[in-house]
Amino acid sequence: MLLAQAPDGVPTITRGDDLAAILVPVLERMSWPDGSTGLADGDVVVVSSKIVSKAEGRLVAARDEAERDSVIEGETVRVVAERARPDGTTLRIVENKLGLVMAAAGVDNSDVPQGTALLLPEDPDASARRLRRGLHARTGVRPAVLVTDTAGRPWRRGVVDMAIGAAGVDVLSDMRGSTDAYGRELRTTVIGVADEIASAAELVKGKVSGRPVAVVRGMGHLVTPDDGEGAASLIRPPEEDMFRHGVADD
Amino acid sequence: MLLAQAPDGVPTITRGDDLAAILVPVLERMSWPDGSTGLADGDVVVVSSKIVSKAEGRLVAARDEAERDSVIEGETVRVVAERARPDGTTLRIVENKLGLVMAAAGVDNSDVPQGTALLLPEDPDASARRLRRGLHARTGVRPAVLVTDTAGRPWRRGVVDMAIGAAGVDVLSDMRGSTDAYGRELRTTVIGVADEIASAAELVKGKVSGRPVAVVRGMGHLVTPDDGEGAASLIRPPEEDMFRHGVADD
């Protein structure tokens, strides 16, 4: 059984906040169907990158559209595709410094003070490891941590959450070598489990509910004592990337 | 709280099987943390397209690589990208008859008898509606139904599940018009909730566990009396598609 909940009561996070110290009392108030409360070993704590960025002081000035464009440009490594919007602005899908391909390079201007924009954490895997250590130090249990962000997908409408930072959880579940019911080897099935956990967590966190943290229980078989290779390993290397040079359809 | 479980005991499905009749006893054996059993209103029943296809008799002959290629070609509307694999075969990402962009046009040759391949359901939204009606007729409750398949993503390693058929559930959750904590309107946030539910369900179903059905509970706010517009509405229309002509990197 998979269980996921997003506790209420996470306060507004600002620069310099110790996320583990702030989240532990919130997480300890969670109650579970079996009557237990709080975190347990094998839990995956899923945190929106937004509050990680805020704690890490990644808010920058972006007083107008031009400043915001220049912030995005500063985060951009290459443009993958671009298209004119009906309102005259340009939608650019770009690869950012983290290797993530997303609109606006992952620069966020919702739920931030007017005149500012929020950059993604500089090293989300390091952020996840740090939060994992902090949660362990304060609770004695060793959950895994995912840092998530929201992105669109080519060909499909709607955004979904994905893992951009990870500590202590298999981000890919490799089924190759397993055989199907007819004895044939499964050739290509490597499952993006961290992204699936991020999506499950989004369903309980929501976008405007002020619940930036969720706990996913029941995935303990994916949780590891070591921090592991992190979500950076989810990024397809250039030589496997068939959509490296997207072409705008304008 | 979101809960998801994938019951054991779904028998092998073959052509002509009545999926609702076969699944109801399996689903009725599920037990939930609150002590209840079976299905309830507001549940989302998530079914792998594989068993829907098998019930609908979508198995075709594919005795060798050449026949399999010709089956894939028959399902292909256009090639979006292609690349030579190290083993000399060609990996093609194509749009299939349903408008889905995937490798091998969604033609499946794992967990099917030797010498055959399995096509996707001809109309997965109709399959979802039919199963929903059947479940309602047999149980009196009216869950939603998703039919799911597995696909890769550009730029990210690992496959994830997505919804290719839907009945009775909002496939997109439109947050536009909502405001953030600073009073600004959320401009672009339409969430692909059906795909997120499909991903959550995959985490409990798994690929080789013989559990092709999961039930996701706690998403009743997305479940609707009407069958709704289905998963076809998740497909990005050509005029919004910035990756219509992917370019192979060879």
UniProtKB/TrEMBL annotation, chains A, B:
Q: Show where the Coenzyme F420:L-glutamate ligase-like domain sits.
A: 10-218
User: What Pfam families does UniProt report for this protein, alphabetically?
Assistant: F420_ligase (PF01996)
InterPro entries named in the record = F420-0_g-glutamyl_ligase, F420-0_gamma-glut_ligase-dom
Q: Single GO molecular-function term?
A: coenzyme F420-0:L-glutamate ligase activity
| UniProt keywords, alphabetically | GTP-binding, Ligase, Magnesium, Manganese, Metal-binding, Nucleotide-binding, Potassium
Q: What is this protein called?
A: Coenzyme F420-0:L-glutamate ligase/coenzyme F420-1:gamma-L-glutamate ligase
Q: Which organism is this entry from?
A: Georgenia soli
